[in-house]
Write a structure and sequence with these properties.
The chain is of the alpha/beta class and 463 residues long. It contains 14 helices and 16 strands. The strands form five sheets. A five-stranded parallel sheet has the order 3-2-1-4-5, with helices on both faces. A four-stranded antiparallel sheet has the order 10-9-11-12, sandwiched between helices. It has a three-stranded antiparallel sheet with strand order 6-8-7, with helices on both faces. The longest helix has 20 residues, at 426-445.
Length: 463
């Protein structure tokens, strides 16, 4: 009964918006609807009265959960860019969808592996059709995507960055560690490397032999460069922002982690949130580019003690030039979110008074009383089943397992699952009953080893 009432209410709101004779529904293409971020945006545009077309990769022919969403008018499977064929087939497939569906706006919700290809697709689509894209161009995307070039750009713009060195050999690492003995550092692969992604070993180690042993295990080369970055002992935060022609239109910040599976927005009026918004604005304005796309930063916040008291220092450590899962925190603000994205289509238009419409509006959309988000599939394994196995093996105490179960129940009762909506339940069901069983079977058949899963982004980390 509750499901019917909520579903009916969502449909009623959409019908009410579309019944307005002045409302002009737009056709929105969203790629990456299998991930939480793409699905969340598809639902927001649907609730705001627009027509949503979804697209995504479906490796091994296993359907992504987003294709079953009620919010989609139509879904297309697109080929994934490969090392052999490049991005040509992928870009052509997107262009065909844009032309066939008469798409007005493409909202790219790419994963980490196809961010640059989406930048290439943006250039082709905007050149060969009237569709506009929420996506940075290929050069900007590539520069922001790579850790070393992002740090160089941030420093060039005159913004603070932690000490960072680009290294292409083990000898270079040891030389730098020898020169700077007072600080601790961590190594990060410049590209995507699941095998070393979670390795946060502090360097130098306690002994010289331990340091050499650790560095010798890292695949450092000119083809696989690393960065040696100053270790910051502080809390980690992440942001999600929508940039339209050099202006910040949407923003949210939240506590982060190396594998973030619990989302809780910082109050938009908090000092930390305002500081991270100010950094985002400064970065975009100093870039002097007419940027339109998603921009997400990762920060470590350090606390320095001065004569005036404690001072918080923002240390940007990474940039993700793509949509962040934190966009789910904007649930309930469908019309404001849709208007923020669609402001790109109003760029250069003339209003009734003969004035050019300005998209660089200083008003920013923030989440309002957002729910706290979790994913039941992740928490069931991480908080209940794995700890139960450790309890049976004598690795943890009974009280630790009970505490994990209590945390799990707290999330189930008072938090919100990132995939399910009562009025749109099929994506959640598909995720756990079709998508993951299919990929587990594919991993067995192809003998592909993995160590962990990010349920929100569908990423299986290889090992």
């Amino acid at each position: 009964m509750l499901s019917f009432i909520v579903a009916n209410d969502a449909s009623r709101k959409r019908k009410y918006i579309r019944s307005n004779p002045t409302f002009e529904p737009q056709t929105i293409l969203i790629t990456g609807v299998g991930m939480t971020k793409g699905l969340a945006l598809a639902r927001l545009f649907y609730e705001a009265g627009h027509d949503v077309v979804g697209a995504d990769f479906e490796p091994h022919g296993i359907p992504v959960c987003g294709r079953y969403s009620k919010s989609l008018h139509k879904f297309y499977r697109v080929p994934k860019p490969t090392a052999n064929d490049g991005s040509v087939h992928y870009i052509n497939a997107l262009l065909r969808v844009v032309r066939r569906e008469k798409v007005d706006l493409w909202v790219s919700c790419s994963g980490v592996a196809s961010a640059v290809e989406d930048g290439q697709a943006k250039e082709v689509i905007e050149r060969r059709s009237s569709c506009r894209a929420i996506q940075f161009d290929a050069a900007t995307t590539g520069m922001l995507h790579e850790k070393d070039t992002f740090m160089q750009e941030t420093q060039r713009l005159g913004l603070h960055v932690p000490e960072t060195h680009h290294v292409t050999s083990r000898d270079a690492v040891h030389k730098l560690l020898h020169q700077t003995k007072r600080r601790s550092y961590i190594m990060k692969s410049v590209g995507v490397d699941d095998a070393v992604r979670g390795n946060m070993t502090l360097l130098p180690r306690r002994t010289l032999s331990q340091t050499y042993d650790h560095v010798s295990q890292l695949p450092i080369s000119s083809e696989k460069p690393f960065i040696l970055q100053q270790f910051i002992k502080g809390k980690e935060y992440c942001t999600h922002s929508l940039i339209i022609e050099g202006g910040v239109k949407m923003f949210v910040a939240c506590p982060s982690a190396e594998l973030l599976m619990h989302y809780e927005a910082l109050p938009s009026d908090s000092a930390l949130s305002r500081a991270m918004l100010a950094f985002t604005r400064e970065f975009v304005e100093r870039s002097e580019k007419n940027m339109s796309g998603h921009l997400s930063f990762d920060f470590l916040v350090d606390e320095n003690v001065t004569e005036k008291g404690a001072e918080l220092v923002l240390n940007p450590i990474e940039c993700n030039p793509r949509a962040h899962t934190a966009v789910a925190l904007f649930s309930g603000r469908a019309r404001d979110v849709a208007n923020a994205y669609l402001s790109l289509l109003r760029s250069g238009m003339i209003n009734g008074n003969g004035h050019t419409l300005d998209t660089a509006d200083k008003q920013v959309v923030f989440p309002v009383e957002p729910a706290k988000y979790y994913w039941i599939g992740h928490d069931l394994i991480a908080l209940v089943l794995l700890p139960l196995l450790h309890l049976l093996m004598g690795r943890i105490r009974l009280m630790e397992w009970i505490q994990g179960c209590a945390e799990f129940m707290n999330h189930v009762l008072f938090w919100k699952d990132g995939t399910i909506e009562i009025w749109d339940p099929l994506p959640w069901w598909c995720l756990y009953h079709i998508y993951y069983p299919g990929h587990f079977l594919a991993s067995i058949l192809h003998r592909r080893r993995w160590s962990r899963i990010n349920v929100s982004t569908l990423k299986m980390f290889g090992c």
